Amino acid sequence: MIIAKRFAVRATTRNTIKRVIRESFRHHRLNLPAADYLVRLHGKIEPCSLTVLRQRVRQEVDSHFARALAPRPEHKERP
């Protein structure tokens, strides 16, 4: 997990984000393909309550893990 201080200034915000990511991963880990997963924060976090932050982060992270669970189309070999 990469949660940069420049995007989430307060330590409580960064720690909450990390906790939610871990919780989501534990929920999905048995269904996920064996791989290394990197979760990185790419934008500044808007000021909000920790409850709202948890809900937003969980929804976002769950959607990313769901995409990792989706079957990928097979590539056809070129002749």
Structural overview:
It is a single chain. The protein is mainly alpha-helical and 79 residues long. Helix content is 48%, strand content 0%. The chain starts with 10 loop residues before the first helix and ends in a 10-residue tail after the last helix. The model has no long low-confidence stretch (mean pLDDT 88). GO terms for molecular function: ribonuclease P activity; tRNA binding. Keywords: Endonuclease, Hydrolase, Nuclease, RNA-binding, tRNA processing.
Q: Give the total of beta strands.
A: 0
Largest sheet: none
Structural class: mainly alpha
Using the CA coordinates, give the radius of gyration. Answer: 15 Å
Element pattern in H and E? HH
Count of discrete alpha- or pi-helical segments spanning 4 or more residues = 2
InterPro entries: Ribosomal_Su5_D2-typ_SF (IPR020568), Ribsml_uS5_D2-typ_fold_subgr (IPR014721), RNase_P (IPR000100), RNase_P_CS (IPR020539)
GO molecular function, one term: tRNA binding
Protein name: Ribonuclease P
Organism: Advenella kashmirensis (strain DSM 17095 / LMG 22695 / WT001)
